[in-house]
Amino acid sequence: KTTEPVVKELVNEEPIPADWTYSTYCRKYLDESVYMPIQYRNLGYKTFGAQDYSASLLNFPNCVGLEKREFQHTYRPFDLLVTMDRKLKIAHETASCARSHNNMLKYLERFLNSYKEMTAGHIISKQAYWRVLELEWRKDEYR
Q1: Model-level pTM greater than 0.70?
Q2: Is residue 105 part of a domain?
Q3: Which domain holds residue 75?
Q4: Within a domain: residue 91?
Q5: Which InterPro entries would you find in this protein's record (predicted)?
Q6: Residue 92 lies in a domain
Q7: What pLDDT sits at residue 17?
Q8: Which are the contacts of 60, defined by CB distance < 8 A and separation ≥ 6?
């Protein structure tokens, strides 16, 4: 779903209006919307989410987002702590010459190692899902 209109002035076409208004996506829980990580979670997959930016549609300030947790495992609390706590940032990034993506990959590794009895097909991460979409899109691009 789009939350902003698609502006097409450069190609002399009419804009495409946004699918959702602010009240649609911000003032009510979005659990009933089609959102792939929730679909996978409801099917019994183990889910993992990692992002190193503070705001998104599901956790934007003053928006309600989801009533239930988006993922069983999420990197967000750690990322927010590192952002707010100077000593943690020094310990986990500056002193070790690491960046947020290094911490995310460590967390992903711990997540994957937590489910050794499960096959890779039972574990879905946000990054893996978007990577599959990107590959499908690129496949169409080169046909």
Answers
A1: no
A2: yes
A3: 9-138
A4: yes
A5: DUF229
A6: yes
A7: 92
A8: 26
Helix boundaries (H) for 3-124: 22-26, 36-42, 76-84, 86-89, 100-113
- Give the pairing of strands 73-74 and 123-125: unpaired
| Mean predicted confidence (pLDDT) in 63-90 | 83
Assign residue 12 a region (left: φ > 0; alpha: ψ between -120 and 50; beta: otherwise): left
Pair 102, 89: CB distance under 8 Å: no
Cα gap 138→141, rounded to integer Å: 5
Contact 20, 52 (CB under 8 A): no
How large is the angle between the packed helices 76-84 and 100-113, nearest 10 degrees? 150
Residue 40: partners with Cβ closer than 8 Å, 6 or more residues away: 47, 124, 129
128 vs 10, residue with greater confidence: 10
Per-residue confidence (pLDDT) for residue 125, from 0 to 100 = 54
Q: Which residues pair with 123 in a beta bridge?
A: 46
| Number of domains the chain is built from | 1
Q: Is residue 143 part of a domain?
A: no
Q: Return the H-helix or E-strand segment holding 47.
A: strand 46-49
